[in-house]
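Example 9 (inverse folding). The structure is encoded as follows.
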């Protein structure tokens, strides 16, 4: 069993990829906020993006590669860009990203501790 190449690690990696792409999209929206007539671009939900890339966890055990999110994973809305709303959404995304990274860091530290203990190091 490979600890860092399992379905959980892969889905966490997908989530980090989605959050990063979402932050970039919001930054682009903020940059266009003062352009008259500019409408915001949005990203589908995490689940929808996984489905589009064939990366939804399921009963099949076929290996899923890392996903690469690009402009095909976004869509244009009819709503105008609100700098304040985009900034709030970006803040929420950053908080989620940081929480996920912290969880991963703690998990890796736990694995490292367990491996050290099994080698008589602790």
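The amino acid assigned to each position is listed next.
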């Amino acid at each position: 069993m490979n600890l860092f190449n399992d379905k959980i690690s892969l889905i966490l990696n997908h989530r980090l990829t989605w959050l990063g792409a979402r932050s970039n999209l919001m930054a682009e929206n903020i940059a266009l906020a003062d352009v008259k007539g500019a409408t915001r671009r949005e990203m589908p939900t995490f689940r929808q993006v996984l489905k589009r890339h064939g990366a939804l966890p399921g009963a099949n055990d076929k290996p899923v590669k890392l996903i690469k999110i690009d402009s095909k994973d976004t869509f244009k809305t009819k709503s105008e860009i609100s700098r304040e709303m985009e900034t709030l959404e970006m803040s929420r995304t950053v908080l989620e990203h940081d929480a996920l990274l912290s969880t991963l860091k703690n998990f890796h530290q736990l694995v490292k501790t367990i491996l050290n203990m099994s080698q008589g190091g602790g």
